[in-house]
Design brief:
Distance between the termini: 133 Å
Helix content: 40-55%
Shape: elongated
Number of strands: 27
Strand content: 25-35%
Largest sheet: 8 strands, mixed, barrel
Strand order of the largest sheet: 19-20-21-22-23-24-25-26
Number of domains: 4
Number of helices: 24
CATH superfamily of the largest domain: EAL domain
Radius of gyration: 49 Å
CATH architecture of the largest domain: Alpha-Beta Barrel
Amino acid sequence: MRLDQGFPIESDRGKEANDPFRFELIPDLVFQMDAAGNIIRILCGGEGSVATLLKMENGGKKIEELLPEVPARKLREAIETVRDSGKTSVFHFRLNDRNEERYFEARIQKESGERNESFLVIIRDMTDTKRADNYLQVIRKIFEDATEAILILSFRNDYIRYNNAFCRMFKVQCAQTPGYRLNDYAQYFDKQTFRKICSALERTGTFRGEVTVFRSDATRLSVWLTADTVYDENEEELFYVMMLTDLTELRESREMLRFTATHDVLTGLPNRRMLLTELEMAVQRSIRDKKSGAVFFIDLDNFKDINDTLGHVSGDTVLIEASSRIQSVIGQDDIVGRLGGDEFLLITEEIASPDTLMRKARKIIEVINRPFEIGNLRHRLGASIGVAIFPHDSRDRDELLQFADMAMYRAKEKGKNRYQFYSSRLDDRVRRHFTIEKALRYALENDGFYLVFQPQIDLDSELVVGMEVLLRIDEEIAGSLTPSEFIPIAEESDLILEIGRWVLKKVCQFLYRWRDDYPIDTLQISLNLSRRQLTDESWVDFVRQSLQRYRIDPERIEFEITETAFMQSGRSGYRNIRRLQELGCKISIDDFGTGYSSLATLKEFTVDKLKIDKSFIEDIASNPTDRSIVKASIAMAHAMGVTTIAEGIENDDQKKVVKLLGCKEMQGFLFSKPKRSEEILPFLEKYYGHRKKTGLK
């Protein structure tokens, strides 16, 4: 009979040696109490923690001397409950044993067969049981929250348990249903795999391996399966435990590890290790195919200032943006990566000419020169680039990298924000390029440019109807530098935009001053417009502001666009053409016949004038082919309602033929060479008559 079911306690029970029941065999603390809370007799002193914590002598003490205040109060309350109800009462309490918390259970029962009302109290140490329960709770929590799918099946098919991860993996509802056998889960595996699993469990009690499982929606998943058999003490099988790990994330992690081994974590670009490998292979291909390639060593100028003043987070933001900008201007087959810090490397193969490399380097510098937005501030950086050619400069990748690095430092020594070739063969050309660019910058800063004007003549009236404005640079600054030499370099850089603004401003100033001195209100001024200007979003606004400032009629301004630039300007160029026309400016196509204009496009934009290239005029008097081309061009222009002008007229024979073919206007040395402003006004006087009293200036 259990104690909490009414064990018959007698006053001398347990003292006799021949008594078959001995209280000292019980590990619990057992004592009698009266209704007033007095301890009548201790039947068993307990052992272990109970004996240690609850020291007391036999009888004659209050319960408060046995237990601390809180459990003593609970015990008194329990006695009252038992006295009133006659039922056993149970409560739990905690005590500290040398800084270790231990758990106890107290059971109170009213004794029967006693005249005086008394109660039997049993206090049991439940610490181990409590800890076991806690461990089970932890295990249950781990089981339910595990990311791996876990399945537990009893060998006798009376127990099944699987966790939430199992339900998610197989896309089934979590309904724990007993009676399932291992074979019931064969549906999740292919037959061969399932036989292999069962065979391993029968033979060794365990299985390890990567398998493919089929989920409830018929999709497949690769998992790592660990299956084990749990045995009892007699080596009888109790449970099968299966743990399945989704390998998707693991494989993604492996891919990420491979990626991080070959790529820069910050920018996602190839790292130094991968770049050197790619450079090695590129050099070998260039030798095999007998073609040239190049390696660009790119260093960001003034990057250290951002790191020092704004911190590394801002520095990282700039590096990410810089890498994106570089990628936006390189070729599809080019490889760009980050060497470390603010250094990047670009590998390009099968280069057509040195000009290709120069344009590529210039594009990189251009995009890096754009302001970087950091917070509410804008910061400008530069890029110094060193270029080495393979296999010309070297066939060794490490040496090529060293040469490109050396060239980059030469670029920094020359003022930063520029590119430099290592190759001595290309050095002269590069040096010439930089000399011209330097002269252009100096001319902009020191008023070293000037304009010349070449009249355009109406063949019917023999009057000057317009003038083309041409740019020249002072010989004291650049020597005998021709426009054909410096204009392409200006167009490659951002200088053409600044130069274009300077030209328009000067033209407006001349027109503003001339109209007070001479009646040339109908004179039209033609300005050349490069493709870069045409695609510049701010150009039209600058034109509008300049014309308004100097009160110039927009119809007096004609922008000449080369045929090639017209066709290559793209949507932004076409949009700006329309905006200029809406403003009132005229548009003419220069060098017509040398490119590949689409007639439909010309009609769409209602071009105002076609300028026939001088290459067709030079031999027009003696070359039937040139005459046919010019004749066809003029006829087409007339059909479209567009005026034609022939340039390069140098003699009367050319003039007569062109006029006979129906050309409306002409321009060339026969009428006048390009002249400075102070020289062109006397020429205009010849056509317009008298001066005003203030005189021509």
